[in-house]
């Protein structure tokens, strides 16, 4: 049995955002040819010969899943939704991997007088030239626009024109949605009225002199399966997900060990449990004079816990990152 997986090219394998390569390493896979910035289109999973991996562009990954070119793939939910606006297809989510979070937003120049997309349309009702929107998400953008109250007041059920390179679809050429193929924010400076783009923090939009009007959807990376992924392949896909999810979950925790006098061990254990400083009951290894306490703790709780255990004269405190955490 062989399962074909698509691994994301771009921001989801960027060391400052997603680093899917590191995620696979943390999950126990030995990967060659997928190092960030040096990816190959054929990727080797050295220690699992049932997995065949290819590099995939997020924009085309749902297409490859729907057509059985890959069995499973890691991709953002925004791209899956973009592919399935007009038809459901055969893509199913095996699970969310809780990284690569982003938002799909509508943005306009920062000096615009609009506070919502509805207001934008209403204030442009007497306009004689087409309204131009650039985006990498023409399907989601058209759906969002057609559901907008301001648009419906002006144009009813008329379908906005969409252009993807030489392909044109739609009847309302007064509102034109044009595929941008990346670097979407620069089109405002070239004359676009608004854009639809994904953003994490909004900092790149601010640098481009833009402001958000509204959010269309929230998205994060997940493991998705195509219609070909059934039977043994589906079971293998679920196993892969569990290993990957264990690695993403582990990123939220520290593995902490420290020593206390034997007569303080139970009191420290109660302190940790009562304050929810551990995922499970602490492990206590008792020696002749000292006991070693081992606890798995959420990273954001560590400073508070550290301050607390000092009241019990904790010593030899060691903090380690966690690579895998499977509940």
Automatic annotation (TrEMBL):
Keywords: Amino-acid biosynthesis, ATP-binding, Cytoplasm, Glycosyltransferase, Histidine biosynthesis, Nucleotide-binding, Transferase. GO terms for biological process: L-histidine biosynthetic process. It is found in: Cytoplasm. It catalyses: 1-(5-phospho-beta-D-ribosyl)-ATP + diphosphate = 5-phospho-alpha-D-ribose 1-diphosphate + ATP. The keyword DNA damage does not apply. The gene is hisG_12. One of its GO terms (cellular component) is cytoplasm. Pathway: Amino-acid biosynthesis; L-histidine biosynthesis; L-histidine from 5-phospho-alpha-D-ribose 1-diphosphate: step 1/9. Its main location: cytoplasm. It is an enzyme of class 2 (transferase). Its EC number is 2.4.2.17. Residues 57-244 form the ATP phosphoribosyltransferase catalytic domain. It comes from bioreactor metagenome. This is ATP phosphoribosyltransferase. GO terms for molecular function: ATP binding; ATP phosphoribosyltransferase activity. The keyword ATP-binding applies.
């Amino acid at each position: 049995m062989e399962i074909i997986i698509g691994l994301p090219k771009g921001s989801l394998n960027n060391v400052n955002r997603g680093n899917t390569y590191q995620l696979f390493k943390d999950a126990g896979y030995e990967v060659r040819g997928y190092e960030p910035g040096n990816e190959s289109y054929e990727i080797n999973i050295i220690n699992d010969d049932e997995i065949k991996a290819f590099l995939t562009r997020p924009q085309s990954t749902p297409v490859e899943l729907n057509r059985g070119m890959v069995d499973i793939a890691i991709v953002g939910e925004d791209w899956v939704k973009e592919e399935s606006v007009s038809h459901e297809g055969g893509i199913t989510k095996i699970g969310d991997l809780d990284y690569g979070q982003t938002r799909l937003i509508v943005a306009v120049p920062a000096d615009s007088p609009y506070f919502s997309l509805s207001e934008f349309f209403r204030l442009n009702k007497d306009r004689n030239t087409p309204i131009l929107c650039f985006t990498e998400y023409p399907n989601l953008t058209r759906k969002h626009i057609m559901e907008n109250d301001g648009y419906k007041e002006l144009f009813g059920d008329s379908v906005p024109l969409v252009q993807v390179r030489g392909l044109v679809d739609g009847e309302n050429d007064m509102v034109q949605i044009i595929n941008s193929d990346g670097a979407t924010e620069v089109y405002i400076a070239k004359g676009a009225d608004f854009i639809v783009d994904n953003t994490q923090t909004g900092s790149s939009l601010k640098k481009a002199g833009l402001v958000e009007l509204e959010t269309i959807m929230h998205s994060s990376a997940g493991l998705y399966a195509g219609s070909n992924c059934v039977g043994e392949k589906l079971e293998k896909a679920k196993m892969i997900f569990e290993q990957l999810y264990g690695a993403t979950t582990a990123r939220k925790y520290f593995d902490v060990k420290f020593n206390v006098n034997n007569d303080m061990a139970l009191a420290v254990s109660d302190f940790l449990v009562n304050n929810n400083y551990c995922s499970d009951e602490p492990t206590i290894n008792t020696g002749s004079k000292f006991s070693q306490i081992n606890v798995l703790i959420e990273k954001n709780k560590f400073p508070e816990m550290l301050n607390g255990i000092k009241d019990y004269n904790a010593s030899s405190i060691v903090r380690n990152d966690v690579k895998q955490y499977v509940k």
